[in-house]
Every structure is written in structure tokens, then in C-alpha cells.
Amino acid sequence: MDSREDTDFFGGTAQGVLSTAMDRPDGPQKVTGTATYADEDHPPGTVFGWLVRATVTRGFVTGLNTDELRAMPGVLLVLRDDRLLRNPAQGQAGRAPVQFKGEVAYKGQPIALVVAESFEQARHAGLAAKADYLDRGGKAVICPEDAEFETPKAKQSSMGDLDAAMTAAAHRLDGEWTTPSMSHVAMEPHSAVAWWEDGKLTVRASQQMLKHNVKELADSLGISPAMVRILAPFVGGGFGSKLGISHESVAAAIAARKLGRPVAVPLHRRQVCETTTRRSESRQRVRLCCDRDGVLTGVGHEVWVSNLPGETFSEPVTQSTPFTYRGENREIAHHVGRLNITCAGSMRAPGEAIGVPVTEAAIDELAEMAGIDPIEFRLRNIPEEDPSKEIPYSSNRLADCLRRGAELFGWSERKPAGTRREGEWLIGMGMATAVRVNMLQESEARVVLLPDGSARVETDMTDIGTGSYSILTQIAAEALGLPADRVTTVLGDSDLPPAAGSGGSFGAASSGSSVTLAAQAVREELAKRMGADPGELTLKDGHAIAGNTRRSLPDLLGGEAIEGKGTIKPGSNARSVRQASWGAQFAEVAVSAVTGEVQVRRMAAVFAAGRVLNPKTARSQCIGGMVFGIGSALTEESHYDRRDGSFVNRDLAEYKIPANLDVPKIEIEFLEDRDAWANPMQAKGIGEVAVCGTAGAILNAIANATGVRFRHLPVTLDKVIAALPRP
């Protein structure tokens, strides 16, 4: 998109399909167990692989007990190949990630594959594998404090003189926070099933971005992308861990070609935690200063994150800091350390998910110093335009979110810090701004109006539990004047038109826009057949209406199908205006003065995220994001053995995510906020913005309950009990 468009892309009378809480078309398949995920629906003759993984942190593999393994029951192949991956590809890479080539970069890295007739036989042999290693020197770096940090020039920025502003300010804050490494732990573990037919590779895999994944897999194997097809009709969650191609797909493809049989490589939960991507830990220094009226005069945000050697991705912690609040003096700094632990990558709301909670905790502290209510302080510091680029916002309803959220949550009942108590429980209320950048990615779709008047939507977009099947069905139905049950949406096949994929909260807006444009092309052909201009055409209830003429679609089609294609690409809009989704999030907590336990009692949020395409799926996304935020604030933390980088809590028994009893009542409201700068549908990303403010609201609620500020996440009971004054 290159300019602002106010065009009604849906035309005519509204069908009452889009922006309604329609049930998911794929819901019955999921609840009845007939939806096929990656490690299901195996072709006849499928055999199974188990990844053999390194037992050292650094070194080179010089040998493996291959003969011993081949002699074990059912074993068909012991695969060692330089094309195996060191780590997964990063999101939208479109090329092979770093490959094995004999070198080990972290403990648990896949180094071989054992294939057997059954999964149990493959696992048994794989666990019996023993490798020989050569140590060529060089110390493994496990802990961030031991790392050497790089400072990428492109990730630094400054305006004015922050040091001078801090010195002259009426109130100033200079503090340091830390957030831990975290694991995605999506419900469905990574897995892949690969087979070859007539020289073409087909892989059923758990992936989020098929058009990029095809190129990554082809490049890893050294073949043409035209010879690769990936199927991912259902994905059991990803949160960013399945953006790029991973170990299992490459290993399965190589083994399937060698054996001439389909090969399935499912990963155990522990293998997923140890070998796929993690969220980087962070150390964050925040500097804020304001005048006597609470107007910010300076904002500084400096971060230290990590990744494997050679990886270009680093957690964009400061992504929203430059444009959320005013302050003419600014300094953003970003440092990347190199660690010998599994690859860091995108995890739901990368950047803001750990950057916003910290800056929001800091904003609360400064508001407290200034003696100003936290909401009022934020209201005083909402800029009129993006202060970092001096460009307007496409839409910024943060003030409305703050005011409505305060009313919804009952903010006026909040008590001074440490003054509300119910027996052993200290009660507090907190809030935070939620903000997440909004993006558009290139996406294509095909819409076919069939001779019987029904329609089919085709795109390789994936549904990772977010509701793609619902949204795209609704968009096509609305544009073509059809009830939703007359539209079939086909997804998750790389042979279909290439979509943006699921990630970055741009999936619905990008793929939905391409479906909108494809349906518009169908409308234009129908208008031509009606002898009318497209703007004069109304499609409703399976009929085309123009002037005094009304014809049923089957009659107008005359036994033919009409196919429309739609493509959308990012244009100048991304540079002309600052696009973001906004929200205000609130939490009430109870903190035990006896045990240090923190309970989240209730939460509420108000969001302004463009046109809401389906209130039911949007609300579900926001609830999921806020549950994610509870985990970030209170429970989630990946632990590594400081001696060798072994992943300690590598399963759901030890990696603590919020369970049912940890999640309170959550109230969610959406403001009317159609953003004409964003895309033809005027919708913006909603899945990740709900993550961003939750942990900050909980941190601030804990501070209000206890009178103590916690700067090291997660806030576990041991930290709380150590900080509370003893009776």
C-alpha cells in the first residue's frame, strides 16, 4: 500500500458476516480429533527417526558407534550428514540456517538421525548412540556475564542530550531490570513427515510461514524450491518457534530420499526445548526524567541480549520505546552477546513482550516519585506524533484506552501502596500501557466463485490456532454476498498462492487483504457481466444486483467459475505514518505476607487495534496473550546448568506455565478504531499486543500491594518473601 485508502472494498450492503463472532469452521474437526497435525496421517510404509544429540557444549564430531546402532532391532539407517542443521532458521529467512558440518555449538544440538521401523525402536537406538568429539580449544560461554557483547550500529539511536536532561530534571529514574530466557512450549511439539515422489519432496510439518519455509528447506538440501511442497493444514501453536524450518524437516527429507520410504521425525518435548528457539534473556537499563508537572523530558533504554555465534537476530527489546511517550532527549542502545546455548529467536510479541513491561514498571516508579496518578502521568505524556521520526500516528487511541480501562476496572478504588490487606493477603492494583508495532507483509490469495454460487479461498496461509480459517472465510463471504457456510477456505499447502504466514500479528491483516483484493477481482468480473460499474454492484444472499436487475450467481455464472487473484505489498504507508496497536491493561493481585505467593485475582484490558474482524477469535487471542503475560510476570523461566549449558527445566513438569487456577476472570473491550492507513480492511494486529502490557500491570500491582518494587522477572515467591519486611 502506498497511500491512505478510504475505499469500501466490500461494496454494497453489509452481509453481517465480517466483524461478527462467527464460530470457527475448523472447530468441529479439532474437537472431534479429525484435524490432522504434522505427525498424523502418515503415508503407507512410514518409518520413524530419532535425533541423536551432542553431549558436549563445543567441539567437533569425529565418530559415532554406527555399526553397533545398525545392528539394533528395526534400525534401517544411521544418518550423518553435513546438511543437518545446527539450529532452526529465523523467521522469514528464506534460506538455509547454519548447518552442522561436524561442529557442535551447544549441548543438545542434533548431530545424527537414527531411523527404524517403529518410533520405539528408533528412540531406543538413538538413546544408545555414542559420539566421539575433538576439542579444538575455545571456552564455551554459557552465562551472559561471561559473554563478549557486540553493538550493532543500526540498532543505536539518540536525540538531544539525555545526560543533561537527567541532571536538570525535577524527577529522575535510573534503574536496571532483568528478564529470563523463556521457552515457547506450544501445545504441539515440532515434527515432520517427509516423502519423495518423482523427484519431488513433500513434507508435512508444523510450520508457520510456508513460502519462506520452502526456500529454507530447498536451500538446506541443495535443490530447487520448485521441487519442495510443504503441508501444514493444522498447526498446534507456534508462538514464533515454528517460523523457520527446523532440524526435523531436513533430517526427515534426507533420510526419506536415502531409504525410498516416508520418514517421520517427531520431537520429544525435551528435544523441542533444547534444540529449537528460545526467547533471549535480557538486562535492561531504563533512564527516565520529567519536569515538576510530570512531563517527560528524557527517555533512555539500553539492553543486553544474546544469541548463538553468527546469528543476525537479536530480541528487539526497544522496538516501541522510541514512539510510545514524549521526551525530547532520547537514547536507545542495543548489545548482543554470544552464548553456547540453543538459538534465540522470535517469541510471541518479540521485543515488546519483555521491553514494554520494564518500561511500564519504570514509568510507574517515576509517576510515584512525581506524586502523580499512573494513568494521569501517562495521559500527560502521549505524543501528538512519533517523536523519534516526526511522523504522524496512523491512529493512536491510547488515551481512550486508558480512560475506558480505568472506568471498566474501577481504578478509582485503588489504595496507596501497602495499605490494603485481607488477612495474610496484601492487595494491590496496577496498570500498564500495551503497544505493539503494526506491520503489513506481502501476501497473495486466490478466490474462486464456483458455478453453483459457492466460493473457495486458496492461500498457503497457516492457522496456528489463531483463527485464520474463520477470518478468511468471513472476508470472502462479506465481499461476495454469501453466507459463511457457502465459502470453503483451503490453507496450509505451499502449492497454493504464497501468503504472509502466521507471525508478527500481521497474518490476518496481510492474508486477509490479499483475499479482499482477490474477491474484489471477482466482483469486477461479475459487474462486467451485469453491465454495471463495480461500484454499482451489490452482492447479497447469493444474488447480484445492479440497478433494476437481479440475477442469482449460478445463473450469472452460466456453468463457469470465476477466479480472482489478489496481492498486497507493503508500500510507503509504513514510512509515512507510525502504525501500532494500542491498549491499556489492568491487574489486581493478592500477595501472601506468609509465603510470598502472588495470585492474580482479576484482569481487564481495553484495546484499539483497528477493525475487529471476528470479536470471538480476537477476544480469544487477547485472553491467550494475557495468560502469556501472567507466565512472564510470575512463573516462566528457562534454567541452564552454568557449567555446560544443559537445559534443566525442559518439560512441562518443570517449566511452569500458568494453569487454570492461575488465570482469573479477564474482561476485554475493543474500541472502534478503523485504521485506513493499515490495509484495505482497516484492521491491525491484535494477537500480540495483549501480551505486552500484562506483565507490567502485574508488576505494578505487586508494588501497590507490597510497597516493594521487583526488577527481576519472574516474581517468584522466594524473591517476594526475601523482600517483604519480617513481622
What does the model show?
The protein is α+β, with helices and mostly antiparallel strands and 727 residues long. The protein is built from 19 helices and 30 strands. The protein has a seven-stranded mixed β-sheet, sandwiched between helices. Strands 7, 8, 9, 16, 17 and 18 form a six-stranded mixed β-sheet that branches. The chain has a five-stranded mixed β-sheet with strand order 19-20-28-29-30, sandwiched between helices. α5 (210-221) links the parallel β12 and β13. The longest helix has 24 residues, at 507-530. The radius of gyration is 27 Å and the shape is globular. The chain starts with 26 loop residues before the first helix and ends with a helix. The mean pLDDT is 96.
Percent range of helical residues: 25-40%
- Tell me the overall shape: globular
Based on the structure, what is the oligomeric state of the protein chains?
Answer: single chain
Beta content = 15-25%
Number of strands: 30
Whole-number mean pLDDT: 96
Which regions are unreliable across 5 or more consecutive residues at pLDDT < 50? Answer: none
- The SS-based structural class is alpha+beta
Rounded to the nearest angstrom, the radius of gyration is 27 Å
Sheet with the most strands? 7 strands, mixed
Ends distance:
62 Å
Strand order in the largest sheet: 3-5-1-14-11-12-13
Count, helices: 19
